[in-house]
Structure formats: structure tokens, C-alpha cells
Write the C-alpha cells for this entry.
Amino acid sequence: MILLKSKTEIETLRRAARVVAQTLDMVEAELRPGMTTGKLDELIESFIRSQGAIPGFKGYQGFPASACISIDDEVVHGIPGKREIREGEIVSVDVGTVVDDYYGDSARTFAVGEVSEEKRRLLEYTRKSLEAGIDKARNGNKLGEISAAVQEVAESQGYGVVRQLVGHGIGRSMHEEPQVPNFGSVQEGPVLKTGMVICIEPMINMGTYEVKTLPDGWTVVSADGSPSAHFEHQVAITDDGPDILSLA
Ligand code: MG
Ligand code: MG
């Protein structure tokens, strides 16, 4: 069942998502070569708490940290730890929060110092695929219009659109109905209605769309070792079009 949110609930979701956006702005300012992913996670957790929010991922299904930090061929769900971030890498940071029982969830992939032209394009087009999807998040559209728009932008560059993981509804739970795939046809899925709040989150691989999970049980990597990018926004469907909640 897809839960529609009231305007009051959407404002609470916005407060949660805004903390995520501010956290990601902080990451952008602080991220530098030599920093470990564990140190970055510490900064993220203390920033979230300084805003009066609770880290939404910590303990979620047993996840041990406040952020998922995924480098290069790691697609999503990387566990922060001792790994040092290096110049030339792309680092996906996915952050969740809880404010007054409602969840915020957003992600960005950052370039560390100078990165290759290929990686820079991957980030650019993954962000563009997200923007194309958000533009279809409108009352009366089929959800599949979002999926098809994301897929078209990503595949126009020859990239692989990850299928095994998808976006989702969000509210008092981090993952609610509906699922929001990043691939598919415009005919598919439910009709979008004012009051739905969804996370659109393309995970785009430079190579094949296939992925595998590492023995740690969390980290998802591209099957061919190619770099992968992830951008996510939390979006409310309103009478006036898409309302991006995860802005600072
Ligand atoms: Mg996320
Ligand atoms: Mg999400």
C-alpha cells in the first residue's frame, strides 16, 4: 500500500531530508585524500546529531554506521572503516536521518581531487539521469515515466543501469511502497498522486549493470569492476509538480 502524506507530514520529511542535504554539503567541504571512510562517518554522525536528528542508517537491519560510503567500483552500501580515500577516486555517500519519527534519505557521489574525464562524465550523467527522473515525478504520471527517463539518459552514454537495487517510498519507514526502479517502460507502475513521497536514486555503472555483494554481506560492487555512481533525492509529488525535499 502506498501511504499518502499530509502537508504537515511532508514538512516533517523536509526537515529530515534537509539535515541529510546539509550533511552532504559538510562532506563536500571536508572530504580530502588521506581521510579514512571511518573518519568521514564519524564526522557525519556528529553533524547529524548536532542538528538534533538521529542517524537513520545506524543499526538499520544491523548496518554498523551512519553513512554508506562506496568508492569507485563499490555501487552502494559500503561500510565505513580503515580504507583511506585517495585522489582520483569517486566516493558515493548515502546518508539517512530521522527527525520526529520521519526519515530523510539522499546521496551524492563526490570526485576526490582530480578525477579522470571518464569518471567526471559518469557523475555528470548520473546526476542528469536523476534530474530527468525527478522531472517526471508529477501527479497523474505513471511511475514508469520516472524509470524510463532515468534509463534513457544513462543508457544514452552506454552506461549500465543497476537493476537489483531500486528507489522507494519513504515516510515513517525508510523503505515504503512503491519501489522506484531506474529502468522500465512508461506504462509500468502505479499512477503518481499528490502526497506520495519517494526516493529516486539511480545507481549507474560505467560498464555492465550487473552487480554482486561482497562477503561482508553489505557492499555491492559492479560485477565487472567498473566505477559506479549514485545520486539520490527525496521528492514529494505535489499539485505544483515535484518538490525536492533533500535540499539544504
Ligand atoms: Mg539513500
Ligand atoms: Mg534510498
Q: What stands out?
A: Residues 30 and 244 are 24 Å apart (CA to CA).
